[in-house]
Design brief:
Order of helices and strands: EEHEEHHEE
Structural class: alpha/beta
Number of strands: 6
Radius of gyration: 18 Å
Largest sheet: 2 strands, antiparallel
Shape: extended
Length: 106
């Protein structure tokens, strides 16, 4: 019995300013999100989100969103696999907005 193997190269992904990287985490943190050249910057600048749930799940979702807005420390034992995250605004060049009218308690 024999087993044939082959290696498939990872594709390069496009990021801001048409920069390329095979690693999504590195590419996003170094170059930012991809945007069309005629736009000159990423868009949208804000993303409005709605949350549906009971009071507890909405509170937890809001805490998670707040946490993602700020810096999140990576794991020091493997910083390549678990790098630090600079926050939504820095990484994606946009803001997550959860207006109170889009928070629905069921």
């Amino acid at each position: 019995m024999s087993l044939e193997t082959y290696h498939v190269e990872e594709p390069e992904l496009l990021f801001g300013d048409n920069k390329r990287s095979v690693d999504v985490k590195t590419g996003l943190l170094v170059f930012g999100p991809y945007y069309l050249p005629e736009d000159k910057k990423p868009r949208p600048s804000e993303i409005r989100i709605g949350i549906i749930g009971d009071g507890d799940t909405i509170a937890k979702a809001k805490l998670w969103i707040e946490k993602c807005r700020g810096y999140i420390e990576g794991k020091s034992d493997n910083p390549y696999l678990f790098p630090s995250f600079p926050g939504i605004t820095k990484a994606f060049k946009c803001e997550l907005i959860a207006p109170s009218k889009l928070l629905k308690i069921m």
